[in-house]
Amino acid sequence: MHPAFSVIFFTTASGAGYGLLALLGAAAFAGLVPADRLFGLAAFVLALGLITTGLLSSLFHLGHPERAWRAVTQWRSSWLSREGVLALATYVPAGLFAAAWVLFGVNHGPWAWLGLAATALATLTVIATGMIYASLRPIRQWCNGWVVPNYLALGLLTGSLWLAALLRGFALHAPWIDWVALAAVTLAAILKLGYWRFIDRSRSASTPESATGLGGLGTVRLLDPPHTQENFLQREMGYVVARRHVAKLRVIGAVLGFAVPAALTLLGVSLLDGAAALAASLLAALSASVGVVVERWLFFAEARHSVTLYYGARGV
Amino acid sequence: MTSLPAAPPGQKKLGLVIDLDTCVGCHACAVNCKEWNTGGHSAPLTDHDPYGDAWGVWFNRVHSFEAGDGAASRTVHFPKSCLHCEQPACVEVCPTGASYKRADDGIVLVNADTCIGCKLCSWACPYGAREYDAVDGVMKKCTLCIDRIYNDKLDEVDRVPACVSTCPVGARHFGDLGDAGSAVSRLVADRGGYDLMPELGYRPVNKYLPPRPAKTAAGATGAPAALEPRAAAGGNKFLAWVDRMLSR
User: Fold this and answer.
1) Structural domain spans, chain B
2) Hey, which of A52, B131, B219, B235 has its CA 20 to 30 A from A83?
3) CATH of B14-209, one of 3.30.70.20, 3.55.40.20, 3.40.1190.20, 3.40.50.1010
4) Predicted ipTM of the assembly
């Protein structure tokens, strides 16, 4: 599948934003983080900023962005529509929770319940994002049980590392966030490696023989494509540029996304404090963010659509 | 509404039956489709750089495959357009309701006035039936020539999809596949018509008829298994006599 920049940016930025928002709500509810107004301002600007710029960037790949409001109407059948509805709904408790925290310096009692509602809706939004892909049967690499947990874990990964960096920056650091971040790194690494193992070992039931129904005659090969030039289907679904580099890119994604953030977090926990710990924390969050972009790019580039069986692919 | 309409037994299901035995791969159906539809319901079917590195929107494309090996291998021309599935995930994923399946006849259409051009429906279609028009910014697809088949301005004989009307070998058949007694349903039953990628569960309405067994021996075509020796050229009776004598 063609990795559209706007979609990669949207899913990674909003994933980090929703992860951060969900953790802020949960942490306030658990009484783990004081209602520091400046910290709140920075955290909500980052979380809601990532979410909002992500959502706006997703509009750029539309043919008619001015009609985007229609996308909230078909929530009964469409995961994309559900994602839109949930994304908009999340703003309500998130906005009130943020306003109470930043304007009035409160994040406990009834306000914490708003935070918890924001956590729940943020989680559901990321699930809906994952389900957009996981519900597409023509793409084996997407239509499986690993996709939604991966979206959730990678959102939690980047969200927790950004929260750790923010807490360091405002001198509110507490050990719990490092353990959350390390747990998120571990979970995300296990789920991503499991996903890669799954797509490497599973096989699609669809073949050129089932696509044409000509398997009874023997092996089916494309003799002539319909046209001499590539068409929309080949450009959109038949993306092959990166596949040669898959192994290297997986290593780069895993090192930047999991190994470096884990090492820097451990370094901050055990050896560093003050400015050095803040720098390590920021670097961990940045590294994970870049790693997740690489991972998301691979998520698209490694996805093989069944339509390519009509254009010479031996398998998907 | 992108939820699918209920389909009671006997529900009309308009579609195509494509005979892979007779298709000669002339691409006339694809060309006539482009010709009709670039002025029809989803017009225009935009072409980019038409006199250079041309690519554009087509609703019907003819692939050619080789199946099998050696002397038993076959070349099969394979036209493919929207299959108007009974479980069209392309419709269900649409966030705006622009994609819909008609309750009356099962035709899958796109409303170009409400499509936002997110392309998700083209990802959801396993068959590659939907093609995005980057100039109009909306998704386009086969309409089963909805502007022909119900068009009372046309002679009745012409109220079939453009691809069907133009096929020079009669390899394309149009009709109601929901009616077990229709000509197309009988054709499917007689010839073992089948679904493409049945494993994905989209339940296409369009069916494909498999190529008949290859006839490689002369006798299989109804011709004599071997030809009688031909009398010598020019009707020379002497040479014919010599030939007969020597053939004994």
Assistant:
1) 14-209
2) B131
3) 3.30.70.20
4) 0.94
Asked if B120 lies within 8 A of A70 by C-beta distance, the reply is no
Looking at chain A, list the stretches that DSSP marks H as alpha helix, in order from N- to C-terminal side: 5-29, 37-60, 79-104, 110-134, 147-169, 175-201, 208-212, 232-237, 246-254, 260-270, 275-301
Nearest chain B Cα distance for residue A9, angstroms: 16
User: Is pLDDT above 60 for B231?
Assistant: no
Domains of chain A in start order, with CATH, are 5-311 (1.20.1630.10)
pLDDT at residue B227 above 80?
no
Q: Which residues of A touch B202 (CB under 8 A)?
A: 137
pTM equals 0.92
Residue pair A3/A239 in contact (Cβ under 8 Å)? The answer is: yes
Q: Is B18 helix (H, G, I), strand (E, B) or coil?
A: strand
Cα(B189)–Cα(B84) distance, integer angstroms: 19
Q: How confident is the model at residue B232 (pLDDT cuts 50, 70, 90)?
A: low
The reply to whether A202 touches chain B by the CB within 8 Å rule is: no
pLDDT in tens, A101-135: 999 999 999 999 999 999 999 999 999 999 999 99
CA-atom Rg of chain A in angstroms: 21
- The torsion angle over the Cα atoms of residues B53, B57, B62 and B68, rounded to 10 degrees, is 80
Mutating which of A57, A217, A237, A308 best tests the B interface, going by the most B Cβ atoms within 10 A? Answer: A217
Check residue B72 and give its pLDDT: 83
